[in-house]
Amino acid sequence: MTDTNTSGATAADEPRRTSITKRGGGDPASRGKTTIADGVVEKIAGLAARDVDGVHAMGSGLSRTFGAVRDRVPGTGSAKSNVTRGVKAEVGEVQTALDLEIVVVYGVSIADVAGDVRENVINAVERMTGLEVVEVNIAVSDVKLPDEEEEEPEQRLQ
After folding, report:
1. Which residues pair with 4 in a beta bridge?
2. The dihedral of CA 120, 122, 125, 126: what is its sign?
3. Chain centroid to CA 39
4. Of 26, 57, 106, 116, which has the fewest beta carbons less than 10 angstroms from its beta carbon?
5. Helix 110-129 and helix 38-50: axis angle, to 10°?
6. Using CB atoms within 10 A of its CB, is residue 129 exposed (0-12), middle (13-18) or buried (19+)?
7. Could you give the 3-state DSSP secondary structure of residue 15?
8. Residue 62: in which H helix or E strand, if any?
9. What is the pTM of this model?
10. What is the mean pLDDT of residues 96-125?
11. CA 22 to CA 112: how far, in whole Å?
12. Is pLDDT at 15 greater than 70 in this prediction?
């Protein structure tokens, strides 16, 4: 004799139920810790700041000069030094603060350029890292005049 349930179906007709045990439990995003280095945030911010119209360069005149000299010496110059020049980041677990030093093009509104830089940097850093940007301090260290040549250090060797 077979067991029947109230609907008249036999136990063999019912779908077989198995219990599934999940390993690790919880959302995969909560399984571990992600840390982001200061240099990563500095690169993102440096690239985002350079994308703004009216920004001629990043960093002070002295840091740009030393950077240009360093870039000419084989094995010492790098794209990283150019990208992060004029950018300093402090990165915590969920927040970051940035200090930028920029050179603006003569004739642009410094307030508008600074506002655009701030907005672009905040959007890029928050989108790419998930960190909350609590502040972006901008120091305008110079104005690029139309008749000024690019600062090129004198070559010592010929």
Report:
1. 10
2. negative
3. 9
4. 26
5. 140
6. middle
7. coil
8. helix 61-72
9. 0.69
10. 98
11. 53
12. no
Return d(Cα 116, Cα 99) in angstroms, integer: 15
Compute φ and ψ for 10, nearest 5 degrees.
-85, 165
* H/E segment holding residue 41: helix 38-50
User: By the 8 A CB rule, do 125 and 98 touch?
Assistant: yes
What are the backbone angles phi and psi of residue 39, rounded to the nearest 5°? -60, -35
Confidence at 14, pLDDT banded by 50, 70, 90: low
Dump strand ranges (E) for the chain: 55-58, 87-91, 95-105, 132-144
| pLDDT cut 90: percent of the chain above it | 55
Tens of pLDDT, residues 42-100:
999 999 999 999 999 999 755 445 455 555 556 655 544 589 999 999 999 999 999 99
CA distances to 25, 34, 66, 76 from 81, in Å:
43, 25, 10, 10
